[in-house]
Amino acid sequence: MAEDPKQDSLKQPRNPRELLLEQHFLPWFATTLKELKCDHLTLFIHPRFEAVIQSLKVPKNSHDQPDFTRLNMEQYLQFRNAFIEERMFNDVFRANKGNRAMDLILTGLCLIICNRLPKGVVPFRTETLNQKIRFVFTPKGLEIANRTVVEKVPVTAENPTGEHHVLIEKNTNERALVRILVPKRAMTLSETNREKEEDDERDEAKDGEDNDKSPTLTRVNSEKFVDLDQEDKVLPISNRINVPNSSPYMVLVMNTFAAKTHR
After folding, report:
1. What is the pLDDT of residues 7-46, one digit of tens each?
2. How far apart are the C-alpha atoms of 227 and 185, rounded to whole Å?
3. How are beta strands 239-241 and 249-255 bridged, if at all?
4. Residues 99 and 150 reside in one and the same domain
5. Which range marks the domain in which residue 179 is found?
6. What's the structural domain count of the chain?
7. Which pLDDT score, from 0 to 100, does residue 217 have?
8. Are 150 and 229 in the same domain?
């Protein structure tokens, strides 16, 4: 017997494979983005994609971000092509062999950024959902890859096209990424006993509220480690190293305690 396509049970994915269908993926993706605990999702923009965005000349919103909700159809198709088909000119995205998955993710992001989600896809309003996505552009003066800029010049016999191609070379040279972890120490015996007493008190309070007492599990004593107190101080430094007879290079530093301190 054939199933009724209007059944509510068929509107939801029944297994992970069905989630990859666009009619199931887009509602799930929009809901997941809405429920993000962080303020927003950050996308680093490649200079070539930034050039496409600048050519659209869209105004900025209150968050100092380009307001892509104001794109006309021609601008939207240009933005969509650079965002999805060109993979934002991101080498990592282009190298990803999961073309179907990348198309689904980038299509969902593009629709949300431009506020063009079809009506009725999700049961909540999506006008402000694009604020969950922020673009980070390359700082001025920093070139992460070689690129060519076309400048308009007067037409001459030597240059009948009136175009002058200027090569802007990459000025970064990263060699390493140093990840600094927070040092740890073993808990002292007094700290372990105090923690055990607090756990026992919580267990007793919980058992007092619950009439059906479950069997008590035996605690296995093991050495525990805690982070050393950093006194809310952190200093990540990215160092530029100059070696004689060699080109300068960068060593990037990531301090794992920096994110916690910032929050």
Report:
1. 666 667 777 778 778 788 899 999 999 998 888 889 989 8
2. 6
3. antiparallel
4. no
5. 173-196+224-263
6. 3
7. 45
8. no
Question: Using an 8 Å Cβ cutoff, are 144 and 172 in contact?
Answer: yes
Residue identified by tokens 């079809």 is: 118
Same domain? For 64 and 90 the reply is yes
Measured between alpha carbons, how far is 123 from 126 in angstroms, rounded to an integer?
9
Q: Is 174 helix (H, G, I), strand (E, B) or coil?
A: strand
Give the span between the Cα atoms of 97 and 151, in whole angstroms: 36
3-state SS, 190-233, equals HHHHHHHHHHHHHHHHHHHHCCCCCCCCCCCCCCCEEECCCCCC
Please indicate whether residue 211 or residue 32 has the higher confidence score (pLDDT). 32
Q: Do 152 and 93 belong together in one domain?
A: no
* For residue 204, pLDDT beyond 60: yes
CA 163 to each of CA 53, 116, 150, 156, 158: distance values in angstroms, whole numbers, following the listed order = 22, 37, 6, 10, 11
**What's the Cα-to-Cα distance from 230 to each of 183, 227, 233, 254, 255, rounded to whole Å?**
9, 8, 6, 16, 12
Query: According to DSSP H, which parts of the chain are helical?
Result: 22-34, 47-56, 73-80, 91-95, 99-113, 189-209, 256-262
State the burial class of residue 133 (Cβ atoms within 10 Å of its Cβ: 0-12, 13-18, 19+).
Answer: middle
Tokens 């900025």 appear where?
60
Q: How would residue 73 be classed by pLDDT, with cut points 50, 70 and 90?
A: very high
Same-domain pairing of 148 and 184: no
Closest CA to 102 of 79, 86, 118: 86
Rounded distance between C-alpha atoms, residue 116 and residue 138, angstroms: 27
Regarding whether 62 and 24 lie in a shared domain, the answer is: yes
Task: Report the distance separating Cα 88 and Cα 47, nearest Å.
Answer: 10
